[in-house]
Structures are given as structure tokens and as C-alpha cells.
Amino acid sequence: DVVRKIAAGEVIVRPANAVKELIENSLDAGATEITVTIKEGGMTLLQVKDNGTGIYKDDLPLVCERFATSKLRSIDDLSRMTTFGFRGEALASIAMVSSLNVTSKRRDAPCAYQIAYKNGAMTGRIRPSAGGDGTTITVDGLFEASESRRAALKNHAEESARVIDIVAKYAVHRPDVSFIVMRDERGCDLRSLGTGKREDVLGVLYGDELCKEALVLRLNDPTLHFEMEGIMASPYSIHSAEAKDSKRKRNKQFVLFINNRPVSCAVLKSSTEQTLASKGLATTYLMMALMIDPSRVDVNVHPTKDCVFFLQQDDVTERIQEYLDAVLEADIN
Ligand code: ADP
Ligand code: MG
């Protein structure tokens, strides 16, 4: 049991980690609406509600078992899914360190069913429950058994900010999905509408004036085995006084997804930032989503490390730099 708890602690160290995993599950289930509710930074309540496929009643007792996954169906899946991190461990890891409730309804089921866990063990049996199509995972008292962990996470404002930040990243990555964050019963902290347009999401997140001239990015390089799409907010379209305001500085961000996971990649980050800075665009918001042939991505990176390596990293980076350069030149002229 100790080993299991240590493993869980490695993966889920703060509320935002749990939110990331739950969102990923909702997206895997084909959800088009995802609502995240948090109280006290997610420490007293953290809930992710989706309208995805739902879970079969008979599968409910399995979802919080370690290595329980419904997502490995073929070799092809295996190479796709194991590109990053661990499989079938997320829910188990969260359940291990909290009180967790799963309520889920498949479209073809007569009603929803729910199951509850406390510190990794099922409490009671499966019960019918109210609830619409989809899945709601409710996590109460995250790390309730670990005083030291709770103490380390006592800055609830910071934990809230991290949760909102991770949801915002997914919202930009998946403009076709509507994301909502509700915090401390104060109403809505973030709401993307799922219009399918990244520029709409950016507008909602950071203000229309920053984003109305956003540049949509798209690059396909079969030779280097990658595709990239993304968006860059072009603050240089707003001049002088405004360009110096502090809101703008907060908007400087570099968001990277590789094969649908938010990751970091130091080489890519520093080189693109250099390209932007050379154009006088040091405060640009840039989001890029790369799809790279999974066989070319290093799968041996530890699940908790989000730093990614892939083949021909320097060539890919250079190609992206060239592309951004061309896009910016074209836009300025
Ligand atoms: P993995 O996502 O790697 O399969 P998880 O521990 O995250 O492992 O989830 C375990 C299983 O629970 C999933 O494979 C899936 O079958 C089911 N599941 C979890 N969350 C949802 C959800 N929101 N909607 C539908 N099924 C889910
Ligand atoms: Mg998962």
C-alpha cells in the first residue's frame, strides 16, 4: 500500500495535476462540454463534469483500479497512447489520496450510476443516481490524509490559478470543446464556447482587443514527419501606450502541445522566443500544437516530467522558426 501511495504521490502532487488527468479522460470520452468546479484551489472540492460517452455500470468498479484502462485496443493504439506517461493510473492515483465519487450515465442506460472511494478503497456499492448523460468525477478533500501535502498547498489562490491555467491551455488547444471553470461559488472564471475557432477562445481568455488580429498557424512538413497548428496573438497591431500596459505582459505565454499533451520543450521555446524577439514581439502569446509520428518521440521520459524529446528536434525547430518568420513578414507587409 505504501508503494502504491508513493506512486500516486509522484503523479498527483497538486490539484492542477488531477484536473489535467480528468480533462484528458473527458476528452478521450468524446466530451464537447467540460465543466471544472473548484473550492479553495481544488483542495476541498474539485469536480470535472463532462457530456462524454459515459462509463458502463459494470465497469465502474474497475476505473479506479491501477492499470485499468479501456484505451488499449491494438498495437497501433499502444504506440499512440504510450507516447507520454502512464496509462490506466490517473484515476487510481487520485482516488488513492482523496474521497472520490464517480457518477456516470451512458446514453443507452436507463439512469446514472455512482460509486465512491476513500483513500483508494471502494466505500459501499454501486448505486443508481440522478445525472444526465456523461461523467462527473468529484474529488473531496484531496490529500486529506497528508497534513504535509496540505500544508505545502495552502496557498489556495495559487492552486486556483494553476487550475485555471491548465484549463485555459486545453481550451485553446481544443476550440471545438466548451470549457467552463467555476471557482468558490463566485460564478464563472473561464468560459470558452466551443465555436471551433482558436481566435474566439483567445478573445474570451485574454480580451478581444489583443486577439482580433490573431494569426492562425498551420504547417505541414511530411519530410520531417510533423504537423503544426496554433495561434499567435499579434500585439503589435495595438500601438504605443497600450503596448506598454501590464495586462499585455501577463499575456506573454508560450503554450506547447505535442500529440495532444501539454508539454515543455526548452529548445523549441527558446528558439521561437528568439524569433519573436527579433521582430520586436517579445510579449506575444503563442500556442503551438505539434503532431509528431509517435515512433519519433522519446517515450522513456518519466510520466511526471513534461519535457519532451523527439527525433530531428533541431531540424523541426528550425523549420518552425522559418515558418513563423515568414508568417510575420507576410503579416507586417
Ligand atoms: P486511462 O485514461 O489511461 O485509461 P485513467 O485512470 O485516467 O486511465 O482512467 C481509467 C478508465 O476510466 C479509462 O480508461 C476510461 O475507461 C474510464 N474513464 C475515466 N474517466 C472517464 C470519463 N470522463 N468518461 C468516460 N470514461 C472514463
Ligand atoms: Mg486518463
TrEMBL record:
What is the primary gene name for this protein? WBGene00090436
Kindly list the GO CC terms recorded for this protein.
MutLalpha complex
Major location (coarse): nucleus
This one is known as Mlh-1
Query: Subcellular location, in the record's words?
Result: Nucleus
Q: Which family does it belong to?
A: Belongs to the DNA mismatch repair MutL/HexB family.
Among the record's GO biological process terms, what is one?
mismatch repair
Q: Which GO terms describe its molecular function?
A: ATP binding; ATP hydrolysis activity; ATP-dependent DNA damage sensor activity; mismatched DNA binding
Lineage here is: Eukaryota, Metazoa, Ecdysozoa, Nematoda, Chromadorea
Query: Has UniProt tagged this entry with the keyword DNA damage?
Result: yes
